[in-house]
Amino acid sequence: MAVNLHPDWLEPLQREFDSPYMAALRQFLLEEKAAGKRIFPRGRDWFRALDLTPPSSIRVVILGQDPYHGEGQAHGLCFSVQPGVRVPPSLVNIYKELKADLGIDPPGHGFLEHWAKQGVLLLNNVLTVEMGLAASHKGRGWERFTDAVVAHVNALPDPVVFMLWGSHAQKKAASVDPRHLVLKSVHPSPLSAHGGFFGCRHFSKANAFLEANGRGAIDWALPPV
Question: Which residue ranges does the record assign to the Uracil-DNA glycosylase-like domain (predicted)?
Fold first, then answer.
C-alpha cells in the first residue's frame, strides 16, 4: 500500500497499518488493480489529507464519505477537486454558505489545499473508490482506519472544531469530547442543503471558537490556482 504520510501520523497510526484488517484492505486494492479496475485517487494521494494536516496543526475537521469517482476529480481531500476540474454541486453549496456567512466570493475552482495547510483536516470516511462506482470500497476496512484518525484527533490537547455535515459524518464523530466544538447540519448536497445547511454559519462559528481558545481564525478565502 502506497503511504505518503506526515511522520507525526506514523506513530499514532502504526498499530492500524500493522493490523490484519489493513493487510486485507491492501490485498483487496492490489487485486482490484490487477483486475484492471481504476482506483481513485492515485495511490500517492490516499493519505493526502493526513500528509497535509499533521496532528499538531489540526484546528478544524470536516468529514466526507468517499472520494469523487469521476476522472481527474479526487486527490485525497474531501469535497476538494484538482485544479481545472468543474466544482462539484456540494462544494458549490459550501461556497454559497461561505459567501452568505463571511462574504467570501467563490474562488472559481474547487481546490481546497489552502484550507488543509492551515489545519483543516479534510478527511473522507473511505479513502478509495472504483471509477464510476460511488461507495464501491465501503466496508473494506477504511472506516476502521479513519475511526482511529478521528479518535486520535479527539484526544489531542487543544480544542478542535468538528463540522459534521449529514448523518454519516455525525455518526462518525458521535463520541467527540465536549471540550471540542461540534457543529452539525444536513449535508451540503443539492438534495438536502436547503434543509439546514444554508444559514448554518459554521465558518464564522468555527473562527469565533478558535479565536476564543487562542488558536487563531482560519482564512477561508481560497487563493487562485
Answer: 51-210
State pLDDT tens for residues 174-207: 999 999 999 999 999 999 999 999 999 999 999 9
Backbone angles phi, psi at 97, to 5 degrees: -70, -40
pLDDT (0 to 100) of residue 5 = 84
CA angle 62, 67, 71 (to 5 degrees): 140
CA distance 223 to 191: 29
What positions carry a catalytic annotation? 66
For residue 20, the 8-state DSSP code is H
Look up residue 211 and give its three cell numbers: 479565536
Cis amide linkage into residue 41, ω under 30° from 0? yes
CB under 8 A, 24+ apart: contacts of 26-34: 26/1, 28/137, 28/140, 28/141, 29/1, 29/128, 32/130
What is the domain partition of the chain in residue ranges? 7-213
User: Does residue 224 have a pLDDT over 60?
Assistant: yes
CA nearest neighbour of 149 among 11, 12, 8, 2: 12
Residue 156 has pLDDT above 80, yes or no: yes
The pTM for the full model equals: 0.97
* Architecture per CATH, 7-213: 3-Layer(aba) Sandwich (3.40)
